[in-house]
Each structure stands twice: as C-alpha cells, then as structure tokens.
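Minimal example, chain plus iron/sulfur cluster.
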Amino acid sequence: MIFDPEIRYGCVRCGKSCSHDWDIWVHRDLPSRIAPHLAGLGLTSDTAFVQEEGRVRLARDSHGCRFLQDNLCSLHCQLGVRYKPDFCRQYPWFFIDTPDGLRVSASYTCTAVLQAEGPPLSDQRAELEQCLDRNPAVAEIVAQWDESRDFHRRFEEAVSSELWALCLLRCLEQARSGRSWDALEPSQGQPGDMSWPRRLVLGALLKPCLDHDQRLWEELDRALEDGGEVKIPQFDYCGSGAQLLEWCGTPFEEESELERYRRSLWFRRQHLLCDNALAGLLVNWAPVPLYRVLARLTDEHQALARIEMTIGHGRGIERVFGLLSGCLF
Ligand code: SF4
C-alpha cells in the first residue's frame, strides 16, 4: 500500500456523509439480513429500502439515509459493522490499483478528512487490510501508466523549484497542441491566456455542485455567456456571470486547503482515468476555478466537499473531462 500523505482520518461522528443524497446500492442479501431487526430500528422494508432498476438501494428522507439516527448509523450502533452496506464500510477510503502498488487515499466529502482530524492513513493499515479482504471498490489505472510515469517524475521535479500552477498551465498548453503524456515538459514554455477555458469548465462543473434545477442551470449558462445577472438561491447569490468568472481567476490570500486537495488528486492519479492528456490535466486544473467561486459562495470546506463530490465521486466524470478537452482542442 502507498498512503496519501495528505490524509488524516478518524471519524468525528458528524453524520454529514450519511445526509448526502447519494444512491447507496446494497448487496441483494442485505435487506433480508436486516429484515428481522427493522422494527427495532423504527423502520419497515418500504421505508428502509428502494427497489430500482432491479437493484436495491438505501432509502432517504430529507435528512438523508433512513438508518441515520442522532447523527449515528443505527445499523452500526445497534447491529454491528457487519450489517452496514459495503459502500458505507469502505467510506471514506479510496483504493487505486496501479502497477506500482495500491494507492490509498480518502474522500474530502468526509469532515474528518477535510479537517485533517485523526491519525495518518499509514497508522490505519490493519483496518485498511480488513477492508481490502471484503473486496472493496478499487479504481484501476493501467492505461497510459508507462507513458505517464516519466511525466510524473518530470512534473514533481519541476514543481520543486517552480509554481505548481505554472507547470500545469504549460502542460495544458502543450497537451492542447496534441502532445501526449510522454512529450509534456512542465518546465518549458510560457503558459498562454487561460481565461477562455474558465467559462467552459465553470459552465460544465459548477452546475453539478448546485441544486439540480434545469432553469437555474440554463440561467447560469446564459450569464456565463453574456456576463449578465444570475440568482443562485441556495447560496443567496444575486450577481453577474462576469463576477463568477472574475472570481475564477482571483486567488485567495491563503489557499493551502486547495493545494492539499490538489496534491491528493495528483496522488490518486485521478487524471489517468481520462483517455487523453488534455482531459486528464483538466482534472487537475478544474478544482482551482471551481474552488475560487464555490468558496466565495459558501466557505472553503464546503467548496472542497462539493468539488470532491463532483470529481472524486462523480460517475462518468472522465467522460465530462473528455468532452471538455474536445471543446478546447
Ligand atoms: S447505512 Fe449507516 S453508514 Fe450507511 S449511509 Fe446509512 S447511516 Fe450512513
């Protein structure tokens, strides 16, 4: 195992992650194992589970998972960890299988991870090994590994003496002109004007971080296009699209949390889930403009959690970045 050095984790019992509107699919045996205990948990099979598309997922109400009681998982507290769905038993850990070893990181949607509360991952080897014995979800990165390996080394060398953002922008420009991983040179060239892809990236990725509301999304598209007014009620924002775009390019005085998240994305090699270098580099670039907007609409921690929800947990996100890169060529 290779541990993400940015991650510390010890559950702070906030219950926040169980309040998300995630679809948590469960093993088909789980409902029958839990059935005899449902009444004791104040639930019925109809209130606890939802059948959809031939599969079963946990039911939710406006507070989140129906098993969440007083901010704690009632399955865990009353029946034991063995009764929890596999997804919940693995959360917040991420496993990424690479030819160099199994990379272990964790989700920034988790309060403890966000606040770096608890011991480092390297101190949690026994629990992680138990989790691995249960056949967890493991992301596999094999494609592009060999050609990107030298690039990673060159990039890490370059950022030891130059700004990370500068090295990344150089590579983005080079990838945009068609270079593949093995030809990217992070320490060569000048970055071009990156203001124009901001609108595209913000238009594509801010929406999944907001309430799903078709009218709001259309208004946002229009405002980013013409710079006009847009209202985002969930954040009490009433301002212009031009303002949102300006925020994208306006750093905060202190961005260490964002830097830490970017290092975790890099550690996870999240970019190698994409099928071309430009799409992969955009994965590393996108959190910056998104963060600078979302942190101004909410706060730094919420901003990172929403970005992680979109990039780290977003199913099919690699296709989104693939489409974006197609627009940028
Ligand atoms: S089953 Fe337990 S751990 Fe899983 S989402 Fe529900 S309350 Fe949270």
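The mean pLDDT is 90. Residues 18, 24, 58, 65, 67-68, 73, 75-76, 84-85, 88 surround iron/sulfur cluster (CB under 6 Å).
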